[in-house]
Here is the input.
Amino acid sequence: MEIDKIIADYLSGQISENDQAILESWLDEDPSHRDQFETLQKVWNTSQGYPPVLNIDDERQKLWEKLTGAKSLQPQTPSHISWSRILKIAAAILILVTTGIYLKKNTFSKEKGVTQTLAQIITRENPPGQKSKIQLPDGSTIWLNAGSSVSYFTNFNSDNRDIQLKGEAYFEVAKNKLLPFTVRTKYMTVTAIGTSFNIQAFDTQKSNMVALNTGKVQVECFDPTGKKSIMGYLAPGEFASYSSNTGNLKIEEFQGLDPFGWKDGRITFNHASFGEVTEVLARWYNVEINIQGELHHEWNYTSVFENEVLENILESLKYSEKIEYEINGSIVNIKL
Amino acid sequence: MKSIRTRKLIQRISEQDEEAFNELFNYYYPKLIQISLAFVPNINMAQEVVSDVFYKILKNPALLKKIDDFDNYTFLSIKNQSLTYLKKNKNKHLFNSIEHTDDYLLKDIKNPERSIISDELFQLVNDTVQKLPPKRKVIYQLVKEEGKKYKEVAEIMGISVKTVELQMCNALKELRKTISFYLESKDEKIKPIKKHKILNFLF
Here is the structure.
């Protein structure tokens, strides 16, 4: 964060001498730093302007008439109207076209590979309670969580690196700048070049989430109507969560959370609600959890378990809330 | 816009010169709308605020002769008027449609100066800027487009200089992320194209 402030100071002509030295040494640190800096300079020196506003002519004429009491001498010049109309239509066409391309790409139908060899879909699925590790033909690794599945074509690594994910998985992506690695979930498309990240997108969830460990990724989500897309970029230590209810994409740091722990057998609860706790436990241990009674106060749970059996976790829960539980094979009954 | 030009235009406007009014209005309107959107939740309110400020300023040209910096004065007025507007309309249901301003603001911004960077990069960077939270976007634009120093921005926005610095830092961070992603994805593709061009030339 420090260096970004110094760059801002430099570009806006407010940099101190001390900071100038810090900037120089940062530039010398890595050739990519210099590239980024020079591109930033070009961007800074290119005026981005302000988005043109529709109805500016109407507003302007209204104001003129209010100011002078005189009717505006300038009728709405046709060129002005057509320009905004043309741009609006062009934008609409662009949306249709990109939506079309997205839909086409996303149907994941077997017809995709028809022009080349007949590419088939490979699916790896984990039932609840089972985790697995998958090696992909390009050297990438997927840790697949319980109750999750990944699908890809047989021509993976020859002309695409597209993966479809339902559930949760941690990806370690092998570097290949010519073939971007793309993971599609219900609401998100995550693109990476050489990185490691975790995506959570179970079918039952209304939000999809991606957390970045190393490298960088681009995240694109479509709003509920499917017409507009929202894009964001993640830096290591950040996670993006997209809510299909609001159509918002939020990016924040995941300091207290532990998005990658599950693949090492670690469950982390951080101010988790009772519902969240039972949902995670049900999926992790492949049990059905029945809850009797209700909590009559605000409750949240923070704790970490490493390779624990379910019973121990339930015992721990008892310390923070008066509950009674009973485990009958794969059914757990909890009384609040 | 240079102060001399602004003064000239305002002088002409007070003499009912509609052309001068159009020039001033067209130049400032999109900027002022952006600034207002840092304070009010939707475009309709922003339009009312901006029209009101314009009206107040232009109705009173004598007042302007005392002002050194038209820009700062106007930006500050926009902020004050926006806050006043919010207070007045506290009871009314405020439709928070910041996300929907896209319906009113066209994304395509034509600008001849942008030929020094590729169309693709321009679009990516522009998207990043447009998607910054409203207050951060305005602060970034005031510094970059309007050339304001942090202190001036702090006065206009009614916040501390430290906050301005923090916001600029965050805005630059987002830009740098976009740029480094763009550069990474472009790297390999440049070399093969160069070779191809040479071959074409030989044949």
